[in-house]
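Q: I have 131 residues here and want to know how they pack in 3D. Can you give me a structure?
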Amino acid sequence: MRHEPSGTVSWPFAMLLTAIGGLAAAGGVPLGWWEARAIRTTEIFGREILAERTLAGWSTWGGVLSLACGAVALAAGLVGLVPVGPALRRRVALLGLSCGVLALVGVALGLVQGSAAARAALGGLPGSAEA
């Protein structure tokens, strides 16, 4: 007998994906999101790097939002793996989904804010430019 695919994902698989997504969102925040360099070009030395800074994701509130939402999504995914009633399953699913969306918003805002923060971190140096 042949079975047609149902088009739905099993609950444990969905919660496992939620937990993995939350771990990725929370774990990516400490990594370097921006790199800024102060470069000076002279006739004698050519192009020389005066300073170089890498800022982590939690340098701005967008990164902190991503960290918090990733941690909550990870917790929601782990709670969703425990057998619970349908009402709690619905709440856990909505919490994981909303945290995933907010984490993406936090990443976008963090990247915009962070690029400005990285440029400002080198702004006082002569000949500073982003590379």
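Q: Anything worth noting?
A: The helical segments are 11-28, 61-80, 86-121. Confidence is low (pLDDT under 50) at residues 127-131.
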